[in-house]
């Protein structure tokens, strides 16, 4: 039977949230690492908001998201929709749907483009409708805009002061995470690194609470450029890691994580607990930093402006300002790294990543990870930064399916690359982990072979290497920077340093 649909498309528009309601409303948020979420909570509270992180995501959230929204959606959409819905459903039972709609609002990132990320809010809206919570309010913060100031009576002010502090919080979270992942595989006392990381994040959280509540636009820019509040907190956070005892002569394959932003940065059931599973299997994991994604967005923005040279009279000026902002962004992250002894890894150069990916992927295609996914994989392999690349992408994600397809050509050009593409559904962990384990087995073999080659190049036996390490206790100190002497693995580079050799 033919049916005529007269309804036109309607963009989501939340009910008003005004400044006078702020004291009675709690901002809900989630979707990033626990470190970043804790710092965001401190940021919102410092700005005068009530704020609450959503509970940790569960597999039940995945099923609920599929049930309430769309069974064919990608798993990040299902997880985030289900996570929010699960919390609201429980609260509605406790205090009633109307009270939930008045007491809470949800804040999340938004964008547009080929990725379903630009349609998340529609999944949320459908789920809320099916829960009988149409009056609940959702607010999107655009990921590509630095100043999204609203009218003075708006309940949520996503102005430049809030967003610049958000950037510093993400930098601090990434730096602590990278340090944590470098130390934990080699800790002598299990759990010591996790305890230190929790205390370190609390230190930054306290610093976030003490930031100025609000500042005019340019004063805010100046404050964020020159404040020592966060680097000082990072130096204090360093003290929590100082006493951790390490054994860096344990041979472990280095695994670089890449993929879609949500799944690559998640550390829970969203990606089958891939990070902790890899560590339990004997690997050292290089997590995917959020700051590299933001750095990529600035690089891509610059590419778009370059295409407008000679067409838009402001293109060159805007390009210069964007490049300056990118340099400042990278410099601020380096300050965070320096406060932790320079041990957290620096961001790779975006122009280098673009050049590496150029033969395989058009750098103007920006859906999903764009050419970043390919550039990072080639960079990790050719620079001997990792034995293996594990890519975590949603099943049926169109942009990342394109990237995975391009990786077939990359592997043809670099046949020695160990690459494990994992298409994540969220509920097929045995299949995904088994697939990853096949590649990890080869990575373990390469790590052992590399370690033996390092011993030979250094002219040492393992026992001799351990004696030299005991004579140089700094090599097992948390803030000793392991030099890169031509090996991908930590243990091999330590041996090469002890023998003053290289591969």
How does the SSE layout of this entry go?
Elements: E1 26-29, H1 34-46, E2 50-53, H2 59-68, H3 75-95, H4 97-103, E3 104-110, H5 120-131, E4 137-142, H6 160-183, H7 192-209, H8 217-226, H9 229-238, E5 254-259, H10 261-265, H11 274-280, E6 284-286, H12 290-306, H13 315-339, H14 350-357, H15 372-382, E7 388-394, H16 398-413, E8 419-424, H17 429-458, H18 462-471, H19 490-498
Parallel strand pairs: 1-2, 1-3, 3-4, 5-6, 5-7, 7-8
Helix pairs in contact: 1-6, 1-7, 2-3, 3-4, 3-5, 6-7, 6-8, 6-13, 7-9, 12-13, 14-15, 17-19
Task: Provide keyphrases for this structure.
single chain, 503 residues, alpha/beta, Rossmann fold, 4-stranded parallel beta sheet, 19 helices, 52% helix, 9% strand, globular
Estimate the helix proportion, in percent: 40-55%
Tell the overall outline: globular
Named at the architecture level, the CATH assignment of the domain at 251-288 and 368-503 is 3-Layer(aba) Sandwich
Weakly predicted, low-confidence segments: none
State the major sheet.
4 strands, parallel
Q: Report strand order across the widest sheet.
A: 2-1-3-4
Radius of gyration: 24 Å
The multimeric state of the shown protein is single chain
Structural class: alpha/beta
Put simply, the count of helices is: 19
Beta fraction: 5-15%
| Termini separation | 72 Å
Global mean pLDDT:
92
CATH topology-level fold name of the domain at 251-288 and 368-503: Rossmann fold
By DSSP, the count of extended strands is 8
Order of helices and strands: EHEHHHEHEHHHHEHHEHHHHEHEHHH
* CATH first level of the domain at 251-288 and 368-503: Alpha Beta
């Amino acid at each position: 039977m033919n049916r005529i649909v007269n309804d036109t498309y309607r963009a989501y528009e939340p009910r008003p949230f005004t400044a006078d309601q702020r004291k009675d409303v709690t901002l809900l948020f989630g979707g990033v690492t626990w470190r970043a979420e804790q710092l965001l909570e401190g940021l919102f509270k410092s700005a005068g908001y009530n704020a609450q992180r959503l509970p940790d995501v569960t597999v039940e959230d995945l099923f609920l998201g599929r049930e309430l929204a769309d069974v064919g959606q990608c798993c990040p959409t299902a997880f985030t929709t289900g996570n929010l819905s699960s919390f609201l459903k429980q609260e509605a039972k406790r205090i009633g749907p109307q009270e939930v709609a008045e007491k809470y609002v949800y804040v999340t990132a938004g964008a547009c483009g080929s990725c379903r990320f630009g349609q998340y809010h529609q999944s949320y809206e459908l789920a809320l409708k099916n829960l009988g919570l149409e009056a609940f309010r959702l607010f999107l913060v655009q990921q590509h805009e630095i100043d999204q100031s609203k009218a003075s009576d708006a309940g949520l002010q996503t102005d430049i002061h809030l967003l610049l502090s958000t950037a510093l919080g993400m930098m601090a979270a990434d730096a602590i995470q990278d340090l944590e992942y470098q130390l934990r595989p080699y800790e002598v006392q299990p759990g010591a690194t996790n305890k230190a990381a929790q205390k370190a994040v609390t230190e930054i959280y306290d610093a976030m609470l003490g930031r100025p509540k609000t500042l005019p636009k340019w004063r805010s820019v100046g404050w964020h450029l020159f404040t020592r509040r966060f680097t000082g907190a990072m130096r204090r956070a360093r003290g929590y890691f100082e006493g951790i005892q390490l054994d860096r002569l344990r041979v472990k394959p280095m695994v670089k994580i890449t993929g879609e932003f949500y799944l690559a940065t998640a550390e829970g059931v969203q990606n089958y607990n891939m990070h902790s599973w890899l560590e339990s299997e004997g690997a050292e994991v290089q997590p995917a930093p959020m700051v590299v994604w933001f750095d990529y967005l600035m690089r891509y923005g610059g590419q778009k402006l370059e295409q407008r040279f000679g067409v838009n009279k402001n293109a060159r000026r805007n390009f210069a300002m964007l490049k300056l902002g990118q340099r400042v962004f990278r410099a601020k992250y380096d300050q965070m790294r320096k406060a932790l002894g320079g041990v957290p890894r620096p961001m790779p150069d975006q122009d280098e990543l673009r050049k590496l990916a150029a033969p395989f992927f058009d750098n103007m295609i920006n859906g999903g990870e764009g050419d970043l996914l390919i550039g990072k994989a080639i960079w990790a392999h050719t620079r001997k930064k990792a034995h293996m690349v594990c890519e975590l992408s949603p099943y049926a994600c169109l942009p990342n399916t394109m990237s995975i397809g391009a990786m077939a050509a990359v592997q043809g050009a670099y046949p020695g690359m160990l690459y494990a593409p994992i298409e994540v559904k969220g509920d097929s962990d045995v299949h995904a982990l088994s697939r990853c384990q096949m590649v990890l087995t080869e990575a373990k073999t390469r790590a052992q072979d590399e370690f033996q080659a390092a011993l030979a190049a250094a002219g040492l036996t393992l026992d001799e290497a351990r004696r030299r390490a005991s004579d140089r206790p700094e090599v097992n100190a948390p803030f000793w920077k392991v030099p890169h002497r031509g090996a991908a693995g930590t243990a091999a580079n330590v041996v090469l340093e002890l023998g003053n050799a290289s591969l």
